[in-house]
């Protein structure tokens, strides 16, 4: 899946979560010292930034299927090896990375096993392969309350809960199937503060898929109804929202 929105829209929608999550995810991955690192499905560069801090920008590579995102990351990290491409056919040689990571990506892969096999292929033997996906099935994703409001209003929602990796145990099973060894899985999470409901709601109006695209497809009166249903799920005034992802790591 690609995101046909400006990088700034994605940053506003998901960046407030993915940026702090990237540090927690990198810690979970138990990154090896030295070598090169690859960010698969880099988006606008949340994880790329963390890998650049830990390995040095010239030792980091990144790839994304959305040309607007790849272009933005190229501009933000001019010394990194940033390419336009898909996880299922990574444009890198065998065994060149000490660590290959994918943050909030597996559930968007057209073939997750093929994507993870590619991640294993480009990682040298004994190197780290790590992935994470929001706990959509458990209702602990940033978008979970939006999807709840959408379903209450319209009777349906693509809440991403049936996507690969969105439930406990699925990421570990996918890494196993892809041929990784020493696979472990756990929870990681972050908390994000908001000035109020409108601060939380506004990014959903930017059309970022899947949530924003579903909202944009509704008529105006239904969008207003979804907004008010969502408002009822939050307290008045400022609040903090805690969100959780499943994470798994293994070795090539």
From TrEMBL:
EC assignment: the record states 2.1.1.-
- Cite the Methyltransferase type domain residue spans from the record: 38-130
Q: What keywords are annotated for this sequence in UniProt?
A: Methyltransferase, Transferase
One Gene Ontology biological process: methylation
Residues crossing the lipid bilayer are none
> From which residue to which does the signal peptide run?
none
GO molecular function term, any single one: methyltransferase activity
Keyword Transferase recorded: yes
User: Entry's InterPro entries?
Assistant: Methyltransf_11, SAM-dependent_MTases_sf
Query: What's the protein called, per UniProt?
Result: Class I SAM-dependent methyltransferase
In which organism is this protein found?
Microbacterium alkaliflavum
Q: What is the lineage of its organism?
A: Bacteria, Bacillati, Actinomycetota, Actinomycetes, Micrococcales
């Amino acid at each position: 899946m690609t995101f046909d929105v400006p990088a700034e829209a994605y940053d506003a929608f998901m960046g407030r979560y993915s940026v702090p999550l990237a540090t927690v995810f990198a810690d979970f991955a138990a990154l090896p010292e030295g070598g090169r690192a690859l960010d698969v499905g880099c988006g606008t560069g949340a994880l790329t930034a963390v890998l650049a801090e830990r390995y040095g920008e010239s030792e980091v590579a990144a790839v994304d299927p959305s040309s607007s995102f790849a272009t933005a990351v190229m501009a933000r990290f001019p010394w990194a090896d940033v390419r336009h491409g898909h996880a299922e056919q990574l444009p890198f040689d065998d065994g060149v990375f000490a660590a290959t990571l994918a943050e909030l990506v597996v559930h968007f892969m057209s073939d997750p096993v093929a994507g993870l096999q590619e991640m294993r292929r480009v990682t040298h033997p004994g190197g780290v392969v790590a992935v994470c996906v929001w706990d959509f099935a458990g209702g602990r994703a940033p978008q979970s309350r939006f999807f709840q409001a959408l379903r209450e209003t319209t009777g349906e929602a693509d809440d991403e809960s049936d996507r690969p990796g969105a439930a406990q145990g699925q990421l570990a099973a996918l890494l196993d199937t892809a041929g990784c060894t020493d696979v472990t899985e756990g929870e990681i999470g972050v908390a994000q503060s908001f000035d109020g409901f409108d601060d939380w709601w506004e990014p959903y109006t930017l059309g970022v898929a899947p949530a924003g695209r579903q909202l944009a497809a509704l008529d105006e009166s239904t969008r207003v109804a979804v907004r008010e249903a969502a408002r009822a799920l939050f307290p008045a005034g400022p609040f903090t929202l805690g969100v959780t992802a499943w994470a798994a790591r293994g070795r090539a």
